[in-house]
Amino acid sequence: MTTALALNCSLKPSPESSSTDLLLQQVLDALGEHGVTGEQLRVVDFDVRPGVLADMGDGDEWPAIRRRVLDADILVFGTPTWMGHMSSVAQRVLERLDAELSETDDAGRPILTGKVAATCVVGNEDGAHKITADLYQALGDVGFTVAAQAGTYWNGEAMHTVDYNDLGSTPDEVASATATLARNSAHLAALLAEHPYPAP
Known about the structure:
The protein is α/β, with parallel strands linked by helices. It has five helices and six strands.
């Protein structure tokens, strides 16, 4: 059974309404159509300490999230756009994932090798393409593999205040991008499970 973990890097704690939550759930639903089961975590609900170690001690709750990242086959990384950039929560998650560069599996491969990543970006301002590019680079650096067209996003009209979860329905373009993300990511995860990367 292929599994997915969606990390919601909204700045809004639960149960506050979150556009990132909505798009991530749509991705999880689309993955479900390909036999993938998944769950979503809102990172800001946890005490994730700054740092670049797997465990920063003193009440750091990242280790529990890390365990769920390692247990999942697919990581769906979701962030809102703030001032043209990913959220500070998203940046902190990337910094914590940096610790995995020094971890290897039993075959000597980086521990995240063979896991698939996909991205979701929402915001009522420009920035989704740059954020997606930054996420692709960072997630690839720590070992994830990104499928073709594995990013979905929604940008609202510039200088307006309508959010994704204010829309009455999902735009066709977003639905299509989400469906493609799910189809390609599920396919890639199955391929990597059957044919892992070679050991060094």
